[in-house]
Amino acid sequence: MLKTIADAYVTPPDGFTVHPKVMPQLQRRATAITEGPIDWGTGEILAFGSLLMEGRPVRLAGQDSRRGTFVQRFATIIDRINASEWTPLANLSEDQAKFHVYDSLLSEYAALGFEYGYSVARPEALVLWEAQFGDFVNGAQIVIDEYISAGKTKWGQDSGVVLLLPTATRARARTTPRRGSSGSCSCAPTTRWSWRSRRPPRRTSTSCGDTPSATSTSRSSSSPRSRC
Question: Of 10, 49, 126, 191, whose CB has the highest number of CB atoms within 10 Å?
Answer without folding.
Answer: 49
